[in-house]
Specification:
alpha+beta, globular, 9-stranded mixed β-sheet, 6 helices, DNA-binding, two-stranded antiparallel sheet
Length: 264
DNA sequence: ATAGGCGCCTGTAAGC
DNA sequence: TGCTTACAGGCGCCTA
């Protein structure tokens, strides 16, 4: 489910509920997946941040709770059949829902990410000036990997997943199979611009809720960006720009969708 | 360096 | 209808 827009929408929804409030306890039965959660007990949440697809609960006393939602994780205000953990708050509860259990939680000393190496290696946020056309072009030039694989690499840029990677490349007019070193500087500019626009629009739309409904906002509301997807999940359907049927190919073992006419 | 495959999990849709 | 297979917003690990 959750790529940067869904995680950001979640953060914005949860922030007023948790910031300044105490976590009384986190209840679960899976200490392997959800590690060190007990150190949140009795501590106040000072900040709720995000880094890429990670949610970061800044706790008083120099502690931090890191949550990665995996493919199907999310927070809900009411229990579900797939509630895996309950966050007891001073005035209510949050339910961590995750059918496939691919999500993880870690309690750590603030900023100590040794247990989460991906957070240590994570590339710039897409809206950060560090994610510049020059930077992206340099990263692309240095590799023979397909450009889609490069965008999915959290070490290159944080937060892009399969949906928004495909959508950004469609908007930029670049075919996902193109080798990195063959992407021109002008095209790298277009990709940076397209990534930022698509993520921004998706956040404004509340993220994407696909057919399986796995992603929802904490209050149960769905997102609306899925109706504006141009290529993702639309193999065989006409390109919204030129009408050519959208193609699906495999890149890095995952589906990539593109218009063979608009994307070269 | 990088491609491919598997594993982690569960649910749903498509195919025969 | 019923069973099997494919596939799914992520990511880590292994082999070649």
């Amino acid at each position: 489910m959750p790529e940067l827009p869904e995680v950001e929408v979640t953060r914005r929804a949860l922030r007023p509920l948790v910031e300044g409030r105490r976590i009384l306890a986190i209840e679960h039965a899976d200490p392997e997946r959800y590690r060190g959660t007990e150190l949140a007990h009795g501590r106040r949440v000072e900040t709720l941040g995000r880094r890429g697809k990670f949610l970061l609960f800044g706790l008083e006393g120099g502690w931090e709770l890191i949550v990665h939602l995996g493919m199907t994780g999310g927070f809900r205000l009411a229990p579900t059949p797939h509630t895996r953990a309950v966050f007891r708050l001073e005035d209510g509860a949050l339910y961590y829902h995750d059918p496939r259990r691919l999500g993880r939680i870690w309690g750590v000393p603030a900023g100590d990410y040794r247990q989460v190496p991906l957070l240590l290696r994570m590339g710039p946020e897409p809206f950060d000036p560090g994610f510049s056309p020059a930077y992206l072009h340099a990263r692309l030039r240095a590799t023979r990997r397909p450009v889609k694989a490069v965008l999915l690499d959290q070490e290159v840029v944080a937060g892009i997943g399969n949906i928004y990677g495909d959508e950004a490349l469609f908007r930029a007019g670049v075919r996902p199979t193109r080798r990195g070193y063959r992407v021109r500087r002008r095209e790298a500019e277009g990709i940076v611009e397209a990534v930022r626009r698509v993520l921004k629009e998706a956040i404004a739309a509340g993220g994407s809720t696909l057919k399986d409904q796995s992603y929802r906002r904490p209050d149960g509301a769905i997102g609306y960006f899925q109706v504006r997807l141009s290529v993702y999940g639309r193999a065989g359907e006409p390109c919204p720009v030129c009408g050519t049927p959208i193609r699906r190919v495999r890149i890095q073992g995952r589906s990539a969708h593109y218009c063979p006419r608009c994307q070269r």
